[in-house]
Amino acid sequence: QVQLVESGGGLVQPGGSLRLSCAASGIPFSTNVMGWYRQAQGKQRELVAAITTGGTTNYADSVKGRFTISRDNAENTVSLQMNSLKPEDTAVYYCNALFTNSFGKFLPRYNSWGQGTQVTVFS
Fold it and tell me: From residue 70, how far is each of 9, 76, 77 by CA, in Å?
């Protein structure tokens, strides 16, 4: 059974930092590309960061240079260090394993999402 448990969200002022963590179970973690998504209120879920099994990272332009994704295959966890946070980063953040479709786009592998973790950036 797939379980993805996100944690680490909270309230922070603009310019602040948060570190999110996702604990995965029931999946072959070390052989999966992993990613962080976010969904702001009234908007579609978007992929913000991905990390391959070899540690190669990809970021959405909106977070490049501010967010860092990392993984620990021994602990089956993926983390997202978020610095220089902006109000537009406010969203619920989720993790999932990823696969690449025929167009080379990352898509979520599992339909079973965790509860997410709320990040609110306010002044």
Answer: 16, 11, 9
Instruction: Compute the mean pLDDT over every residue in the chain, rounded to the nearest whole number.
Output: 97
Note the pLDDT of residue 92: 98
Which of 26, 18, 21, 6 lies closest to 109 in space, CA to CA? 26
> How big is the chain, counted in residues?
123
Measure the CA–CA gap between 8 and 23, rounded to whole angstroms. Answer: 11
- Kindly list the distances between the CA atom of residue 21 and the CA atoms of 43, 46, 61, 89, 104, in Å, as whole numbers in the listed order: 23, 18, 21, 16, 26
Query: What tens digit of pLDDT does each residue of 41-100 get?
Result: 999 999 999 999 999 999 999 999 999 999 999 999 999 999 999 999 999 999 999 999
List Cβ neighbours of 112 (8 Å cut-off, separation of 6 or more): 2, 3, 4
